Amino acid sequence: MRHLFIVNPASGTANKDEIIRIIDAFATKQALQYRIHRTSAPFDAEETTRKAAEESPEDIVIYSCGGDGTLNEIVNGARGANNVIIGIVPIGSGNDFIKNFAPDNAFPQTRDTLQTGEADAKPGDTEHPDPDAVAPTYIDSGKGIASELKPFLDLKAQIEGAVVTIDLLEVNQRLAINMANVGLDAVVARNMTKFRKLGVLHNELPYSAAVLVSILRPLNRKVQLTIDDNPQQAVSLTILVGGNGSYYGGGYKAAPQASLDDGLLDLSLISPVNHLELPKLLSLYKQGQHLQHPTFEGRLLYTKCHKWQVHSQRELTYAVDGETSTAKEITVTMKPHCQRILIPRGLHMAGSGQA
To answer: What CA–CA distance (Å, rounded) separates 281 from 296?
Structure first.
């Protein structure tokens, strides 16, 4: 089995040179057949994944060493490739996908453990260290990761992990592993990216500035919504989410009942909302309390489905795993059981549909 570590140097604040050194030393010590690739441009991770899948005559584990955006590129690069298993090393500024997992000391029998096999020596993109040296297994992400999810940063736990098959979403011909969203939250994500690129705001300030700018615009949009084969309906849209996973936006639990392997996507529509109500609603929404809280009565639609489509007379801002775009029509379709991923030893999928 081959291993490819794709490291995004622009993702997060961690020291990428040190991360590459740790990966290199560990993989050499474990006698893995491996390569390390440092991305240099947008969609580099996607193209590198596509080429690696085409060239590998056997299964290949491709590790996303970055944030959710890097992971999304790898998912799209692996499209249609049956030999790719995706691993996640969360060192980005946004690591929402890993929040869909929880600690567990025993894996269900439906999971296959990763078999590393015999190594066939192949140099990576960097020089190998002394194989007799002590190789650390833990990566410092440079960002607070919940202690129970630290196995994602433990390379030994990664290669001793389990392989499971999960669902994906297709959003206007692009794949998503975690979430598609339309409306206010997508506008915030777009504006936050703009502020970060300006380089004048740091830490949490880009997000705060993005929220302030975003709520100055009208919060509700009139759109046409179609769910599965049901008749089209006119709705007022503030936030519309299609969840494969539960979390997005830095920890918002938008789809509390979502499962990565149940073959269904969770639709959550919130509307209408006024500016005075917004702070309280967002606080409850972030905690995943919107399904039961009386404040959301009459303004929340939550259901499981296979497909939804929204149409607007004007361009809508939407996000796919945090990456934003615009369109007048957005279609989100469930793609069941189509991608293998690697879950580190000691973790399992929270709310698994096959559990």
So the answer is: 8
- Distance in angstroms (rounded) separating the CA atoms of residues 325 and 343: 30
Contact 73, 49 (CB under 8 A): yes
- Is residue 120 predicted with pLDDT exceeding 70? no
Percent of the chain scoring above 90 in pLDDT: 69
CATH topology for 174-336?
Answer: Tumour Suppressor Smad4 (2.60.200)
Nearest alpha carbon to residue 122 among 55, 202, 169, 192? 55
Cα–Cα distance, 54 to 76 (Å, whole number): 14
Using an 8 Å Cβ cutoff, are 258 and 246 in contact?
yes
Mean pLDDT of 287-294: 95
Mean pLDDT of 150-162: 95
Both structure tokens of 349: 């999928």
pLDDT digit string (tens) for 301-333?
999 999 999 999 999 999 999 999 999 999 999
The encoded tokens of residue 92 equal 């980005």
φ, ψ of residue 144 in degrees (nearest 5):
-65, 115
Q: Say how many Å lie between the first and final Cα of the chain, rounded.
A: 27
Domain ranges (residues) in the chain: 2-160, 174-336
Domain 2-160 superfamily per CATH: Probable inorganic polyphosphate/atp-NAD kinase; domain 1 (3.40.50.10330)
How buried is 104 (Cβ within 10 angstroms: 0-12 exposed, 13-18 middle, 19+ buried)?
Answer: middle
Angle at 351 between CA 158 and CA 157, to 5 degrees: 10
Cβ–Cβ under 8 Å, residues 214 and 192:
no
pLDDT, position 108: 44
The CA radius of gyration of the chain, in Å to the nearest whole number, is 21
243 and 96 Cβ atoms separated by less than 8 Å: no
Highest-scoring range by mean pLDDT, 103-117, 137-151, 172-186: 172-186
Whether omega before 42 lies within 30 degrees of 0, making that bond cis, reads: no
Q: Does pLDDT of 106 surpass 60?
A: no
Asked if 322 and 245 touch (Cβ cutoff 8 Å), the reply is no
